[in-house]
């Protein structure tokens, strides 16, 4: 059984981590959630009767673990000392997300062509990975990889360019260009 768990871990680790990171923005929390998922897999692998449904079972377990994470996070209380740092009249709808989105859109053209094209098709034309892979004559995983790499390159460029301040909801409320 130990070998089976190790092979599942090796095969699905990256895929599940990518899935978790799409739903949980905190990288450390995403890693923790992934560990939780595999603890659950280790404890409950015997309950999986049909091995052909392993991937479905893993994703369901992962999704449930993400839901648990948000449920626990929601019930955590904020220390009164932390409330002093939050302006009382802050309107959570006022943020700079749209302004930053425009910057990101202009940065798209700085990406290498293959990454830009894949991301444009996925984000702005709403195409699915299967459609992108057919249009660009690449594999399905190639489509996913290009989009993931494009997002990472955009994030790196953005983080090199500016420092951001976020509200308690993760919205950008202030940014400042980094000094060169």
UniProtKB/TrEMBL annotation:
It comes from Clostridium magnum DSM 2767. Keywords: Sigma factor, Transcription, Transcription regulation. CDD domains: Sigma70_r4. Signal peptide: none annotated. This is RNA polymerase sigma factor SigZ. The gene is sigM. One of its GO terms (biological process) is DNA-templated transcription initiation. Residues 103-154 form the RNA polymerase sigma factor 70 region 4 type domain. It comes from the Bacteria. NCBIfam families: sigma70-ECF (TIGR02937), SigZ (TIGR02959). Transmembrane segments: none annotated. Belongs to the sigma-70 factor family. ECF subfamily.
């Amino acid at each position: 059984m130990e070998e089976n768990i190790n092979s599942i871990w090796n095969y699905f680790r990256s895929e599940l981590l990518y899935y978790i990171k799409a739903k949980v923005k905190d990288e450390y929390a995403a890693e923790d959630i992934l560990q939780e998922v595999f603890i659950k897999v280790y404890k409950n692998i015997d309950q999986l009767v049909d091995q052909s449904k392993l991937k479905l079972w893993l994703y369901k377990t992962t999704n449930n673990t993400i839901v648990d994470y948000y449920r626990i996070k929601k019930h955590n209380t904020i220390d009164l000392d932390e409330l002093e740092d939050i302006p009382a009249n802050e309107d959570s709808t006022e943020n700079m997300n749209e302004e930053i989105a425009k910057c990101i859109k202009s940065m798209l053209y700085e990406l290498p062509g293959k990454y830009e094209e894949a991301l444009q098709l996925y984000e702005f034309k709403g195409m699915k990975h299967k459609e992108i892979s057919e249009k660009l004559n690449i594999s399905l995983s190639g489509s996913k990889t290009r989009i993931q790499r494009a997002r990472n390159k955009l994030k790196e460029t953005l983080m090199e360019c500016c420092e951001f301040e976020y509200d308690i909801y993760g919205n950008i409320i202030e940014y400042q260009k980094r000094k060169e």
